[in-house]
Amino acid sequence: MKMLARSVLIMEMFVMGFALLLAKDLPDSRGLIFGGIITLLAFLAAGMLKRKIGWILGWTVQILMVSYGFVVFTMFFLGALFLGLWVTAIVLGRKGEAARAAFSEGREGKNPQ
User: Fold this and answer.
1) What does R_g of the chain's alpha carbons equal in angstroms?
2) Average pLDDT of the segment spanning 31-54
3) Which of 30, 45, 31 is nearest to 75 (CA)?
4) Which domain holds residue 98?
5) Spatial CB neighbours of 2, under 8 Å, sequence gap ≥ 6
6) Which of 36, 58, 38, 34 has the alpha carbon at shortest distance from 46?
7) pTM (2 decimals)?
8) How many domains, the chain?
9) Is residue 58 part of a domain?
């Protein structure tokens, strides 16, 4: 689960870098600051997924990515896409961990040593 979620956050950092290139041409610099904060939070969340605060930051990044659409309109769509990827990573990651646990439990039963 952590690997999939970390991959989503890293992809979001790249997308935010491209969105910042679009936001640099805006007359107001607040969009650049807001985008930089989102990128920094995504970086921190990717590194802190071993703790609960990393997951909280990850969800915060998802909300902020969608709200960055008020600065760069396309981010409404890309933020929603990444939100869907984030939820999918969590759901599939949990299923994968459960399958791995069941598989390893079954192997331990066959090899008593």
Assistant:
1) 18
2) 95
3) 31
4) 2-106
5) 49, 50, 93
6) 58
7) 0.83
8) 1
9) yes
